Structures are given as structure tokens and as C-alpha cells.
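Next comes the chain:
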Amino acid sequence: MSVELPEACILAEQMNTELPGKKVQTIQIRDYERMQRIGFMNKDLNGYDRLVGGTVKSITSRGNTVLTRLDNGMNLLIAPEYGGKVLYHEDGGSATAKYHLRLDFVDGTALTVRLTSMGVIQAVDDEGLEGSYVYRRDFSDKLSPGDEEFTSEKFAGLLVERNRQLKQVLVGKDAVVVGLSNSVFQDVLFRAGLHPRRKASSLDEDEVRSLHGAIVALVRERLRLGGKDRFQDLHGSQGMYVPAMGPNMKGQPCPVCGTGVERLSIGGGQVYLCPECQK
């Protein structure tokens, strides 16, 4: 299950409750060859060894990335954006054997991280953070829907001159905000009643306010419900947010008007929408 802004925030908050003050005793890496080859894990595995001996100082998230800082100048970046599990184990001896990275702490607890699709598990020192794509992208000066500064006025200012389709403006490396991926995007546009082929510059003031409000409301709801329904939090609890739009919805009745849901190919991916509710 993909980890987007709400799920990254949930993981970071839970990790920040469980991990600060814990000292890393050992690390283990499994099934890393493919992940390493395609850039999802460190090319130099010695980077993970440098986590050993460090004590967790803090955990924060921004966008889709969780950043764990250690007191020895090392950092662990976790961004299982298209699928993965981050689990905390009170008893390290009973931890799952399915992981790509495992941290065992001096007190006998453990943390395991596994990617099930695309994502990142990186160990980098303070000086190397800017060399990480996910760090540069998410811990940047771009607005995030998780920030207090994400106001309707600032959001409108970013959209007014963007003569591009909404998906390009809200999702991906050229987006005006960080933390929105395809799942959030589809439900946000459904809530705001906007067609995904609309260009950002074509939105009037009411539509911009509706889009901003939909983003804020969806993020808050996913946080309140513990994440999306296929997401497992740090303790293995399942999220309860059920998307309104998404895979396998083609032809299914719209939950508002009953019209058959359509599927479009936009920006290199599939987008589901209600042709009646979204204009």
C-alpha cells in the first residue's frame, strides 16, 4: 500500500513516540540487490552500518517522506511511496522476517522496513541529505498541505499562471506542492467537482477555494481514520479511509450521482472520475 502525505505523517508521529532515545545496536539488510540496482537503497551498503551506535533524536515527515535523525550525524530516509511497510516490534525476537532493512535497538525492540514496490530506504549523513532526491523534493521550500502556511490565498497564487492540467500542477516533480500523489489527487478532484483535464489557470476563485478545501479536508480525514484502507501503521493497524475513486472503479456507479465511473490516461497514469460530477 502506498504511503502518501497522511500516512507518512501517521508513521512519523508514531515513530516519534516510540523511538527517540533508542540506540541502534545492529542493522540487517535482506533482498536488497534489486532495490539497490534501481536506486531505492544505498549503492554503498556501508552507509547503513554507520547507523549503528547512533541514538534516535527525532522523527519528522514532510510530503511523502519520513526522516529519522540520529545523534551521530546519520539520517534514515524512508519513503515507501508505492507500497511498503514500516513496523515497530516491542520484542525484536518475534519481528517479521520480511524486510529490506532491520534496526535492532539496545533495549531489545526493533524496526523493520520493507518496500513492496517503488520507494526509498536511504541512510545518509547530514552533509549528504541534499544529495537525496526525496529529501530535496519533500523537505523543500514548496508548500505542503500539511503546513499551516497552506492557505487558500497562497495556493491560488501558485495556480493562477499555471497553464497545465491539474495533475501536472498537483502531482509529480513539477508540482506546486509536495505530498500529493495519484490516490489523493483523484479523490480531491472528485470532492471539488473538477475534471482532471482542466488547466489550473482556468479555475475561477470559487473553484480554487473548493479545490483547496477538498485537499485540506481529505488530508485531515485520512489522518483521522488512520490512513488509507490498505495502509498498515507502525503497529500493524489497518487504515480505515476508503477512497471514492481509484483502481477497479471503472463502470461502477458514482457514490454521489450513480453515473458510471470513467477511466482516463493522464500524465502517464490512470485517473478515475465521474463524468457527471466533475466538470
In short: Residues 8 and 64 are 6 Å apart (CA to CA). The domain at 5-138 is CATH 3.20.190.10 (N-terminal domain of MutM-like DNA repair proteins).
